Amino acid sequence: MNVRTREAVITFDHPFHLSEAEGVLPAGTYRIAIDEEQLLGLSFVAYRRVATMLHTPALAAPQGRSAILSVDAAELDAALLNDQRQSAKDRDARSSAAAT
After folding, report:
1. Helix, strand, coil tally for the chain in percent (to 5)
2. What does the alpha-carbon distance between residue 21 and residue 71 come to, in Å, rounded to a whole number?
3. What is the pTM of this model?
4. Which residues are CB-contacts of 13 (< 8 A; sequence separation ≥ 6)?
5. In total, how many domains does the chain have?
């Protein structure tokens, strides 16, 4: 079984919560590692995600306690989507206030 690890960074504009974390995580840019295993027996190369790890603290806060949290990918995606929606609301509110 072939396993690969991809790394990426994600940014939260607002504090957020994940069930695997103790308390609320601060806004910032976080490093994530995604482990994927190759699906065998196909006529093309394909992978499926088997683990997602979030590295804390945020990259801009290296003095914080370092940890690697194994997180649910769907919960992380939902938290990112919620953050993006909140950022859009913030922009709309600023635009409305500037227009008056």
Report:
1. 25, 40, 35
2. 9
3. 0.84
4. 27, 83, 86, 87, 90
5. 1
| Distance, CA of 15 to CA of 31 (rounded, Å) | 16
Confidence grade of residue 55 (pLDDT, cut at 50, 70, 90): very high
Q: Which structural domain, as residue segments, surrounds residue 20?
A: 3-99
| pLDDT for 39 beyond 90 | yes
What is the rounded CA–CA span in Å between residue 27 and residue 30? 9
Model pLDDT, residue 26 = 93
Is the four-CA dihedral 52, 57, 60, 63 of positive or negative sign? negative
